[in-house]
Amino acid sequence: MRHTTSGRFINQHHQLQQTEGVFRVRDVLQNHREEMQPVTQRISRSGDESLISGYLYSSDNRTVAWNLRKKIRVLCWVWCSGRDIQNQTQAIHRTWGRKCDKVLIFTDRHFAKVTTIDLSKAGVAYSTSRYIMAYRYVYKHYKDDADWFFGTFDETYVCMENLRLFLAGKDSKKPAYYGHRLILEDGSVEFVDARVGCILSQAGLELFAQNSLHKTECNQMIPAGEKQLGACFNKTGVILGNSTDSLGRSRFLSFAPSVQMQGSQSHWFLLQDQEGLKKGKESMSVYTITISGMTSFFMYGIEYYLYHVRPFGLFPVDQDLNIPDG
């Protein structure tokens, strides 16, 4: 490794290597460990700025995160219920949303002071599942703009660095989707808790869009939107993949960390859970991707603690906790 006076790292091995669409995550992390040195720099690209103060933490080397961001394109869409919509959407755009390649805000009605997409007037085939309508809209207008298409609710905080790390081991050319896996008690339908995130591959979006219009499972008049989405994906050939880390811990948190720590999740949720949730910190991956139940106030707080607070004397070490794909 050579370090220039301008503060830039010069190392050809820091480029992400790719084989058949899947990055070798272990190699990326090993290179990062070898090169971890303090670097002080202010970032001019607005999308990479630290979002509270405008500065990155001065001793962080973010080369790996930047490389993953350049290599893995993610379109994010967010369903907004309308409650405190102005503050909630503003918080999303100012925190995690700025790290998406594109952000779309969906609603079911018009809001004068907020730029949103009213799905009831979006010109896509109607479904009682807002998730199905959202993905139909995304396919119609943005299918070539990303490798992965991530949907969630407005009270979810997303660590985009961890999402891209997870996706680095996946192939966007395979029709698959990921999230916190649930199943109906009778075993008839597998689905994800879409409140805290559903990540769909480019191939999955294509297969879904081409085959969903005339499938009963994709157009039923039922209110259970995420269950309908799971049934629709299954019928159209989009596979539900495993999103836990190699230690079996969840990356998509359906409840606030305080609830997860106490193991006090809802009874219905535990009956439908497919990830064998443990109590306490062992239920949550160190590379958690999403956290549920975050109002705009808490989003700014999470952003601050993730990117601005460092315990003195502890050296950060990256871990390879991805499960090999396939």
Structure description:
The structure is a single chain. The protein has 326 residues and is α/β, with parallel strands linked by helices. The chain has one domain (25-308): Spore Coat Polysaccharide Biosynthesis Protein SpsA, Chain A. It has ten helices and 16 strands. The chain has helices spanning 25-35, 63-71, 85-94, 130-142, 160-168, 202-211, 225-236, 257-262, 267-272, 296-308, and strands at residues 2-3, 9-10, 18-19, 22-23, 74-79, 102-107, 117-118, 148-153, 157-158, 176-178, 181-183, 190-192, 198-201, 239-240, 252-253, 290-291. It has a seven-stranded mixed beta sheet with strand order 7-6-5-8-13-10-14. A three-stranded mixed beta sheet has the order 9-16-15, with no helix packed on it. Helix 3 (85-94) runs parallel beside helix 10. The longest helix has 13 residues, at 130-142. The protein is globular and about 60 Å long.
Which properties best describe this structure?
326 residues, alpha/beta, disordered N terminus, Spore Coat Polysaccharide Biosynthesis Protein SpsA, Chain A, 10 helices, globular, three-stranded mixed β-sheet, seven-stranded mixed β-sheet
Q: Nutshell version of this structure?
A:
The protein is an alpha/beta fold. The chain is 30% helix and 15% strand.
Q: Which CATH architecture is right?
A: Alpha-Beta Complex
What is the distance, rounded to the nearest whole angstrom, between the alpha carbons of the first and last residues? 34 Å
Q: Report the uncertain regions.
A: 1-21, 32-59
Q: Classify the beta-strand content into a percent band.
A: 15-25%
Helix/strand/pairing category: alpha/beta
Helix content: 25-40%
Order of helices and strands: EEEEHHEHEEHEEHEEEEHHEEHHEH
Number of domains: 1
Number of strands: 16
Strand order of the largest sheet: 7-6-5-8-13-10-14
Q: Rg from C-alpha positions?
A: 20 Å
